[in-house]
Task: structure prediction
Amino acid sequence: MSQQESSQHTDRSENAKSSVFFLWTMSWGKIISVIALIIAMGGIVWTGVQATRTEDTGISVNLSEAKTIAEKYLSDRGVDTSVFVRGVAFRQQPGFMTKAKYIAWFGGQEDFTNAFDKTGWEQEAWTIQYSKEESQRAINVTVSPQGDVVKVDQQYPEAAEGGNLSKEKAREKVLSYLESERGISSGQITEERVETTERENRTDHIFTYHFTEEDWNVKDANLGFTVEVEGQTVNGFSPFIKTPEAWNREHLTPNGWQIGGAGLSLLGILVALGVGVWFVLSGLRSGEFDSRAGKWAAVLYVAVDVLSTLNAFPQFWLGFASGANTSLSLNMFIGIAVVGQIIRIGFLAFLMFVAVGFGLGVWKSRISPRFGFSQLYSADRGWNIQTVLAWLGVPLVIGGLEMANGQAMQYIADKWSIFMPFDTDTSLLSGVVDTYVPAIAPVLSVIGLVLSLIFTLGFAVMLKTTVRRWWIAILILGALVAVPGGTFLSFAFPLETVGLLIASSVFSAVIALIWIFGVLRTHLLAYVIGIAELILLQGGLNLLVQPDTWLSGNGGVLLIVLAVLVGLGVPFLYQRGMLPPQTEEEAGPKDEEVSSE
Amino acid sequence: MSSRVVTIVVTLLAIGSLIAASQWRDSAFGIYNVDFDVSHSQVKEQAKQFVEINRDSSVSEYRSAAKLKSRSQVQAYLERTLGKEKTGVLANAGVPIWEYAVRFYQPQQKEEYQVRYTPGGEIAGFEHRIPEERDVSSVSQNQAKEQAKIFVENQTPHTISGQWEQISSETDDSLPSRTDYTFVWERDNKKFGNGVTLASASERIRVTMQEEQVGAYRYFVHVPEAWTTQFENQRGKNRIANTTARGIVLILFIIPAIIIFGRGYVRDTIRSKWPLILGGISAGIISLQGINSLPLVLFQYPTEQALGIFIAIVLVGALVGLLFQVGLLTVLTGIAGDIQQKISYPRLPSLQESFSWIHKAHVRNALWAGSVVFAFEIGFVTLYYALGSEYANFWTPGRIATTDAVGTYVPVLGALATGITAGISEEVVFRLFGISLYKRFLRYTILAVVFTAAVWAFGHAFYPQMPWYVRGVELTVVGSAWGWLYLRYGLLASVISHAMVNTFLGAFALWVTGATLNAVIGFAFVALPFVLWIIGGIWYRNQNSSESVKV
Result:
């Protein structure tokens, strides 16, 4: 090692040792750290209280209850579900965003909630789909988070038998069905559309109604529903909200400014991608690519992804019912799906190999060969409470800053009457609650995320240590900051809304960048803990606040696991000697060599 | 036998192969003798007149776009149920299997017109889209039905009576200022020319009335759902083969190429000049073709958007796609292939050496070999389908004597773009890189050639040919031949042969459409390597003789 390199390394080591973290906690000491942590914890508890869901707003039925409800509904109507392939998911209803945007735009959150309560057309709901191989027969039952069957859609082969009803007889049957099963009287509605189709062995009718009372509508949007009669039976009920065509045409496609902004964002992505490739190649050439770590990361990722896919198996069969897939035999569908999954996982594993091999390689070579356990505990000094608090607290502070960002945005929107989109009650739970064990889903996704984000860290290391010219660094950082802004441009919001969203996302990007560059002065472990903590906290809290016991229990377990992992797991591993060296003496000859020089 | 005699004999055999292919063409592919009474440009004028007469309004202020549309499901049903001969009879009798669609639109305006014609010039569809708040003189459902029948009788070759049975009706009262009515009629067992029927399919006519005026008319063939289900099930095998092949390309070709590129970068063994040149050529041609095909793309233009924005989105999307396709496929695998070839086949000419002056022996050889293999392949493919459809139940959709390419600014550019870009990128990935890489793992060259050819071939399994393996087997043979060419004469030979095959098919489609000048340009391009071989030979001889004189 040259004299210069030695001195740089010593500087970094010293830096890493003396600095607990990059924020003010670093110099202002223990008291500030504790205060910051208390404030952040308060913020989290407050957010948790705010987020608490009641029976009306949260998820009251879990996956297995939703399946039972759907099956009972169908068996009460003489459908034998045992002959079907069943897929289940908790997901946003098709076309939701369009309707939500219109209602939120003109009515705000209250009208929005009322409208969806009235139609029973939940934004996120359980979709239970039944399909048959090599057949067009399919059933789709939508169960609300509260356990009501809000929508049923049945598909029959065109040649299936079913009998014939005249239009008038079918209408009578529909009105009676609405009264008895949906509590809708004929005085509340107006028939606006009827379609009759005479098939080979039956006659089908589709009736469309809208509610006539004023308070059922939001501005010019009509709340309505269709009822389907196949042969002699009422088989389908689908509520909907119809928004005016002229508004749809004007507001559902992005305008020139938005496309221009998206182009700018795309440019940012390409610049960031190009710089990323350049950095990886530079890392490779300088021998800093840690291929061993990359291989382990790829193996870990494959294991996690396979586990994650198996955990989400209830959703797997939904793919069978889409498009022309039911024309396939079940074995053929499985064949196509398995091949597709192998390709997907294989490719992502390669990306993880590159991300971690590069990120960890340059980190170890340019910042510190150690992960940073010694910052938490050392044999001679015991626990470094300041570090522990800072490492746990800083991600919470970051989260707090994000919340403040959201609050400020809402304040500006309210003050200047700018339309802002808002989260729905059950946002973020799709893909989590519809797994066998919901608590596992965020854990698995956090592993994938942490692995891929190690690339970001490597990127930051390279930026800090390679790019000497300030204007190049500014350009690259500008490109990185421009990237998230484009996310919002696909929605055709008014320009001031887009501006606010971009400002907010740029603020978030800047916070993230400060955090990442702060991490460069400390240790990798702080970053990993931070990311994991933020995501698991959010995932755990989202589950914990749900009224269903199984889901809230999963949330609780997740938070306990998080606490155990961070609070007990690391010291336990350390005490068992299963972690890399912690003290300078144990750190090995490299550090000794540096010190001696 | 001297090498000159061998060259002459093989060249003559290759020409014979092309002649034989032209003889077997019909039995191999079934080229429909469908009478195209209207051309791509004539149909626009015809549609304009139709709208102006029927709507009593001018569309001269409107922009227009035209496209040839194929109803592939109907074609597959008729061919597989009745055979190509009877399908041809039905197409000539006006059954809509192929249609010209003409659209008149204005940016950011919902109101627009669409008119469809059969190749014989009969109207097959009409649509007048109007805003939902548009008010139209009100009529009852029965009056609307009568108006619909009158429209069908006066404006189309059909009359709603006798055999036509009404199977569906719809009344739509949801619109603010009018009621729309839709009626569907069906006719079974109609006997067309020579008593040919539609088997279990039926003809349907759907008319939507916007109160008293016709909003939409459609004449179409309804294929039985049970048949479609069974057909899609059979197509599932094509999907599996295609998905698997594409997965193999990603995992076993692209990822290793990235790794080898990375290693080459570390060891400083990268030679990027020719991969970049080849990538640049592909990128240039694809970009030109993107602009060239704008008239066809505009058919899909959503009028909610400003036209400029739509074009910008299309161009930016194409540019990003280009970056990845050319950057990843041609340049990256080209660099990795060049490194790998040096290890596996050090005696083969490098990329730089491959692309050189035409008087040089290896270039002349590549030009000649690429040309003759092209001719043999055209012969082989034709024979393969001719015998396969006769003895092994092969099915490949019949072709028609027109192509949508005539709707572009420069029709021949499409054929050239397909030829050159596929020739370069696929030969670089599967021959230069693939064979060189898998020679190391599979040990035997023959295994490497067949494996890479098969992966490339089954990546084409989504094509309509059936049974599922037909296209894969055909192209495995073709790809193996290109593999042999590559190993014997270098990459230039296989690129030339591949580009010639693809360009020839495009040019041939233009020829049968009647776009003679464009077709001739395409054929001239196909003949170019052979001509260059002759010129290169003369140049070589002149140079040699002048050198002998000097001596």
